[in-house]
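Ticket #4471: complex job returned nothing on first submit. Input attached below:
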Amino acid sequence: MTGAWSWRKSARRGAPVLVFGVSFLCLSGCGEIDQKAKTEKIYSGKRDTEAYNNTKFAGDKSKWESAMVERSKTQNEYNRTDTKMPAAN
Amino acid sequence: MARMKFICDAERCIECNGCVTACKSEHEVPWGVNRRRLVTVNDGKVGERSISVACMHCTDAPCMAVCPVDCFYKTEEGVVLHDKDLCIGCGYCFYACPFGAPQFPQAGAFGLRGKMDKCTFCAGGPEVDNSAEEIKKYGRNRLSEGKLPACAEMCSTKALLGGDGEVIASIYQQRVKRRGKGEEVWGWAMAYDRKDTKPAAKQVVKV
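Support reply: We reran it on our side without changes. The output follows.
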């Protein structure tokens, strides 16, 4: 009787530890690992200025980015010539 | 913004070397150094394909990993560049690169090797943008002017696309959808829209 009572008591004490331990193990797989390539972290040379830090774009990154996107789109000749071509199969 | 990337459409490339010439002209690349070059497979045979190759500005670039003096860096747009003042011309990057992009100017009877030179995606290097120093070491910085690489902009068939990865991928996707797939993208049937006749080139091969 005394043995069963002490077993139940120790189980009650150990339950929170067990729950904590199991949840810790389960959540350990959810850690955020840095996806950046290790090779990107090392550089010993001079610092380069960003492409938008000049008189034309005056440090406005979004302006430069939209200019680049628009320029990239000009490579699609379908947009320029293709008003009468049949639709894709 | 997505990363800056190149795509070369082997179905469109006509091996004109316009991209190679544009690059050499734009950056005044020295004799013997080719930042961009054309690779042709099945030359002179049916199914010949050419592709324009330069630095592909890898996401996890092996040249950066092997450089003993850590002279490589990557810009916010994913362009892999290097500092020529640090480069010792060891050639490790050349062996590491799967595209053969790093180039070394050679001089003298014993081929004395200089500092590495490679495609910069027309983004210059770690000098003041479009300064004489930058142009001398790395060539022109077109990205800072809001322009795309000269090779891609010069390509007459638009086989070589360069720029924002998402945009050029969507252009390429549209092309592939338009032209279908397989043998019909090349040869007689495609050119003359006569699907009932065999391609002339194939008949020649059989003879």
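Helices of chain A lie at 2-27, 61-73, 78-81. Closing as resolved unless it happens again.
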